[in-house]
Amino acid sequence: MRRCNMTKPFQDLIEFIKSLYPGLYPVPLHAPIFTGNEKKYMQNCIDTTFVSSVGKYVTQFEEITTQYTGAKHAVAFVNGTAALHIALQVAGVERGDEVITQSLTFVATANAIAHAGAEPVFVDVDMDTLGMSPVALSKWLKSNVFMDAETKSAVNITTNRTISGIVPMHTFGNPCRIDEIVAVANQYNIPVIEDSAESLGSTYRQQHTGTFGLVGVFSYNGNKTITTGGGGMIITNNEELAAKARHLSTTAKISHRWEFSHDEIGYNYRLNNVSASIGVAQMEKLEEYLVSKRQTSEAYSTFCKSHSIEFFQGLAEGQANNWLNAIIMKNRSERDAFLIATNDNGVMTRPLWKLMHKLDIYMHCQHDGLENSLFLEDRIVNVPSGVRRLNS
Ligand SMILES: Cc1ncc(COP(=O)(O)O)c(C=O)c1O
């Protein structure tokens, strides 16, 4: 090991991580694995020539997703950001509106709001979920919003803009207090669009994340629990909304055997059959992957406990998919020293995203005090969490 000025517990942690992933150098943060029917299903796409956005795997991928999550409808997208953009649009977000989300998130959450023509407003997260705090949400709404008697919509007292969406995010796959968030949102008649990009396989009180709000969104980027190379999904119980999302994702083309006519400005956002075929194969393995990830998370937890390292553990009411495990450092300088020591020694780690309200592009946006977000930004480090092949 290269010399580093880390304390013994952290040096031991680096060796422990290497022992979890033997033979991998560097140990990736989260590499995809393909141990099922991926090649077979992809070959079928080529053999049948169905490689584009029409094909049996797109339909199958959607069906498996509804069965797995319990949502009534699923619509497959080219990526999670596109799915989130359309989810916002079909939920009623319009140009010039405001949408409340968290500053502690990946930039795609805020970008999708901007793509929908709205402006993000950032509220704080809970320390024990890393996701939107229902208390912070309620506080912000109480002091910044009035209800328009005519439209029955929430309006920002200062900007006079409609608040047309709330987007909580289940950070690193840890369910946030989504039931409480939905209850607050209902008081103000604002739809909840769940950014569950990271939380496929995570449940809260035995219900799948993404199914609490009006609509939920998954991502199948290469770094997620399962991947399609690139892909996304909208889930919802609202049939009309699902149909609208599907229509918008396919250039808003009116179905006809040969004519090309479009009744809205749509998007080319539909997932292709090859990616979907990988998705079907990966879904067949999801439960197995989740077991492996749970074991890894438990191993981290046990190690950290015995070495006085703070390991992030979510709510007891939630069952996380353990997408990315996180440790909490004492301060920013300890965090930075750990990031250097790990990345210099063949273990990929990464800090939390720079908070959204600190980015030049979103600096002008309204936000609350964000105390927890700022605290966590200085301290959280994600450690390697990919699926381990325990039984092979
Ligand atoms: C919280 C969050 N939202 C949205 C996205 C966007 O998904 P995608 O990369 O598939 O566009 C991601 C992942 O990348 C994410 O982590």
SSE layout and pairing:
Layout: H1 8-20, H2 38-48, H3 56-69, E1 73-77, H4 80-90, E2 98-102, H5 107-115, E3 119-123, H6 134-144, E4 145-147, E5 154-156, E6 163-167, H7 178-187, E7 193-195, E8 203-204, E9 207-208, E10 215-219, E11 232-236, H8 239-249, H9 273-306, E12 310-311, E13 318-319, E14 325-328, H10 332-344, E15 350-351, H11 371-379, E16 380-383
Parallel strand pairs: 2-3, 2-6, 7-10
Antiparallel strand pairs: 1-11, 4-5, 8-9, 8-13, 10-11, 12-14, 14-16, 15-16
Helix pairs in contact: 2-9, 3-9, 4-5, 4-8, 6-7
Quick overview of this protein structure:
The protein is an alpha+beta fold and 392 residues long. The chain folds into two domains: 8-33 and 285-383, Aspartate Aminotransferase, domain 1 (Alpha-Beta Complex); 38-281, Aspartate Aminotransferase, domain 2 (3-Layer(aba) Sandwich), CATH 3.40.640.
Kindly list the characteristics that best describe this protein.
alpha+beta, single chain, 15% strand, 392 residues, Aspartate Aminotransferase, domain 2, four-stranded antiparallel sheet, binds pyridoxal-5'-phosphate
Task: Write up what this structure looks like.
This protein has 11 helices and 16 strands. The chain has 2 domains: 8-33 and 285-383, Aspartate Aminotransferase, domain 1 (Alpha-Beta Complex), CATH 3.90.1150.10; 38-281, Aspartate Aminotransferase, domain 2. The two termini are 28 Å apart. A 4-stranded mixed β-sheet has the order 1-11-10-7, sandwiched between helices. A 4-stranded antiparallel β-sheet has the order 12-14-16-15. The chain has 392 residues and is of the alpha+beta class. The mean pLDDT is 96. The protein binds pyridoxal-5'-phosphate.
